[in-house]
Amino acid sequence: MYDLTIIGSGPGGYVAAIRAAQLGMKTAIIEKESSLGGTCLNIGCIPSKAMLDSSEHFYNAGHTFATHGIKISDLQVDLAQMVARKADVVKKTTDGIAFLMRKNKIDVFEGFGSFVNKNTIKVTRADGSTEEVKTQKTIIATGSDVFSLPGIEIDGKAIISSTEALELTTLPKQMVVIGGGVIACEMASVFARLGTEVTILEYADRLIPGMDADLGKELAKVLKRDLKIKVNLSHKVTGASVDKGVVTVTAENKKGEEVSFAGDICLMAVGRKPYTEGLGLEHIGIETDRGRIPVDEKLQTSVEGIYALGDVIKGPMLAHKASEEGMFVAEVMAGQHPHINYRAIPGVVYTWPEVAGVGYTEEELKENGTPYKVGQFPFRASGRARASMDDGFGFVKILAHKETDEMLGMHIIGPRAADMINEGVIGLEFRASAEDLAIFSHPHPTFSEAIKEAALGATGDRVIHM
Question: Annotated catalytic residue: which of 57, 63, 444, 465?
Fold first, then answer.
């Protein structure tokens, strides 16, 4: 019998397994796919970043290299090679997870895991054969699946999800993207950079609606200016049909008028849903709440000894959130007292410029009635940004309490925002003031100097380079 069995090998599952093994638990992991790593490593985070990187190189070669004195002629896209490189990146990454399982003496069962009872999990292999795994405790870390709007079926050919988008080897001429969130903006960027005419349809009044409003407004400007993406906000999609190779998407605009958009590919990117179907939760008395598994403060379900984490529970569907929860649960099981500050978990969009945010948004502070002040610094005033890309877009925005100066949030759209946001994460964890960030010496010239300048702005009228 295992001390712990984990269903799902994504960033939450495999991290939990490794930490549990480090803490001396006899651990097993069950994965229905032939490779470990879950959605993130196989069809999500890692492959999408590989394609984003490749498409960015191509775009820069055709649009920005000349200003640096680099001339290129006869520039072409080899989409098949981009996809092949992406597949190689994925394989190396998932092979690395398999190595870590062996290194930490974690037993891996390939097949679909479902509960027989709280201490027995049935593993059903692809060939239909089964075996049972006995376990003292279990973590449900099965992640999420693609989600579509009612009445619109993802056929994998004309109407696709991000999974199929990452496998396309022929460049679409026109793509209609339903959704304006993280996945939508990233995939729209990939194909627009390569030459596809892209149209985005978003229900909300701004892109990336879960993030600070100023970030979404600035991102829309960049996507329109640089990539010529047509951004249609406040559009409620009502249907999609395919006829003779043309996809027609219908929607209602903010005036209530019916409008339509055509393309040879429609990308459905309106979010994901928790993956809990077929797990046999009814056999152990767990009921879901709007698709998610309810848990307590220790991430334990209503059944003692059974925990859940990542996309199947409340909170944003982020790989690094799941990883933090994986560490957390393993340490809880070992009798330790770990800590997760959900307010200090950052969100990132890997467009160019990158977008990142952590802590409270300005909209949340207004809604809560929290007195706050804002410090903001544009990258157009950064010497490092000008030297690197002549980019006049983007900024760092810091929100601090108006009375105590405690930092409440940091929001960045600009170069290397995904890496720089960690200053905000650390600041929130240590309850730093804006002045704390302002007095730290930042090397010159760097993009991160914009954080110091924004912090100076939040402490008062102290910005130096603007």
Answer: 444
